[in-house]
Amino acid sequence: MAELLVLRGVSLGFAGNRVLDGVDFSVDEGAIASLIGPNGAGKTSLFNCITGFYKPQRGSISFNGIETLRLKPWQVTRAGIARTFQNVRLFRQMSVLENVMSGQHCRTRAGAISAVLRLPEQRREEQRIREAAGGCLRFVGIGEEEWHRDATTLAYGHQRRVEIARALATGPRLLLLDEPAAGLTKGEKQELAALIKRIRDEQGVSVLLIEHDTSLVMSISERVSVLDHGVMIAEGPPKEIQANPRVIEAYLGSEDAEAALAL
Amino acid sequence: MAIEPGSLGPQSVEARPSAWGGLGAVLDTPAKRAVAIVVILALAVAAPPVLGPYATVILTNALLYTILALGLNIVVGYAGLLDLGYAAFFAVGAYSVGILTTGFGWNFWATLPVAVIAAMIAGVVIGGPTLRLRSDYLAIVTLGFGEIVRIAARNLQITGAASGISGIDQPWLFGWHIASQTDFYYAFLVLAIVGIFVSVRLADSRLGRAWLYVRHDEDAAEAMGIDRVRVKLAAYIIGAIYGAIGGAFFAVNLTAISPESFSFRQSTLFLMAVILGGMGRIPGVILGAFVVVLGPELLRDTGSLRYLIFAVGLLLIMLFRPSGIWPAGGKR
């Protein structure tokens, strides 16, 4: 399979603190890949580098053959990388549908003048935005009865799904999920695993997730990468990772010792 | 995806009483809305002959404030950018008209596009570099910009220095000389209606939603592919256009302008109208503009105490209704 996202020697530091140190990493087209590691390993920082929120001091990041290091976050999204956030960050005081409609912004173009004049082209585009957002919501299993509610009043598990729908509405080729299972019940986690598989199988979107729930990671990912103190210490299929002594060592003695036992 | 026609359209209006604020609950059908609009329009049209010339002057001023507050509302209420120098755009519009009509003999209507373009350029010049900044640096820069424009107008020859520009011709429109107070009242009424119409349409559009996304969470908005600088700049420029048009008509209404018409105090009054009524809610902003203009007038009988009473009233409103007088209707 072709490599969709390739990171080479990515290093990131804040005020002398090394957060990422020469990270080499790649995600194949059509893959479900996971990034694991103890708390503070730099996983979310790596996500922020990929999506353009942080600018690494060294290294290169290319997506689909385009160098994304110089791009702004919104340009990265337009290039085809969508993300969710570790803490759900839906737009407050806006409806579920409006939240998901935000994803279509970078795929549409109507400006102020056509909005004021309500030109036919603008009306068709508005309709397209609504339909695309509605389609994404149905895909993640949010029924129409919830579309017009204030997004932040939904049950937590549903908010997580709306966030995924919002990311899908940007029409991505790669979806980055930052701890999508955090705070979900056991049943919801199983639904999430099924949803992630459907995102890849039905929409053809590659998925990279950061996750602490090792059983979820091991059950759905084809490839697992382990980050510890900003260094990529292991990479491979789930089975190999579970048996890798360096991985177990990284987890032992950390706050995630529990996760090590589950490995 | 099969989506029934109408299943999304009208509902989406219900889901967004944002522009209408709490009116959505009361005026729940198009018929009721139409009746409300007709009644308000009829009252507005009948006001000058019924209330007399003095009230007409005050109401004209309130309509001017409505236009400016609507423009500032796009910047502050929709896009969430604190602008403390909005009077600068008002000044750019007024001086463009003043200079071109008195100094170069232009027709008022020909100066109007120039005024708008000048304000847009001012918006880009001030907004371009500063909108990249987060936080409240923008407020400080706009405060400075407002003062720069006023002080420049005070010192330049072309703007008539401290005495300003006088003898600005009042415009003709298809043989109608817009000259009396009543004429200007109706001119400002039309402008205010156009301003409301534009604001309502913008609120319910791709750009209007983008402003709200950026206001609520810049990072999440950017992660959704929204160029926050561009979106904010659009708000800034549209706000500037409202200011310039308000300023242009202000200049021909008074026929004379001076730098002190565009002081920091003006900027704060415009901002007060927006915040008092309820940021982002159009009926609230209109109400705010009327309160700011009519409040001191209604208190005229109290003599020297009137600004004190007015100030206490404003404080009480902010204490008991911190998000504005107009009800939010459970949303925003």
Question: What features would you describe in this structure?
Answer:
The complex is a heterodimer of chains A (263) and B (332). Chain A is an alpha/beta fold and 263 residues long. Chain A contains 11 helices and 10 strands. In chain A, strand 1 (3-14) and strand 2 (17-28) form a beta hairpin. The longest helix of chain A has 21 residues, at 120-140. The radius of gyration of chain A is 19 Å and the shape is globular. The two termini of chain A are 28 Å apart. With 332 residues, chain B is mainly alpha-helical. Helices cover 70% and strands 1% of the residues of chain B. Chain B has 14 helices and 2 strands. Chain B has helices at residues 9-15, 23-26, 30-51, 53-78, 87-104, 108-130, 137-155, 181-203, 206-216, 218-223, 228-254, 264-277, 282-298, 306-320; strands at 172-173, 176-177. In chain B, helix 4 crosses helix 12 (264-277), helix 5 (87-104) runs antiparallel to helix 6 and helix 6 (108-130) runs antiparallel to helix 11 (228-254). The longest helix of chain B is centred in the last third of the chain and has 27 residues, at 228-254.
Secondary-structure blueprint of this entry?
The complex is a heterodimer of chains A (263) and B (332).
Chain A: E1 3-14, E2 17-28, E3 32-36, H1 43-50, E4 58-63, E5 66-67, H2 73-79, E6 81-83, H3 96-101, H4 112-117, H5 120-140, H6 156-168, E7 174-178, H7 186-203, E8 206-210, H8 214-220, E9 223-228, E10 231-236, H9 238-243, H10 245-251, H11 257-262
Parallel strand pairs in A: 3-8, 3-9, 6-7, 7-8
Antiparallel strand pairs in A: 1-2, 1-4, 4-5, 9-10
Helix pairs in contact in A: 5-6
Chain B: H1 9-15, H2 23-26, H3 30-51, H4 53-78, H5 87-104, H6 108-130, H7 137-155, E1 172-173, E2 176-177, H8 181-203, H9 206-216, H10 218-223, H11 228-254, H12 264-277, H13 282-298, H14 306-320
Antiparallel strand pairs in B: 1-2
Helix pairs in contact in B: 3-4, 3-8, 4-8, 4-11, 4-12, 4-13, 5-6, 5-7, 5-11, 6-11, 8-11, 9-11, 12-13
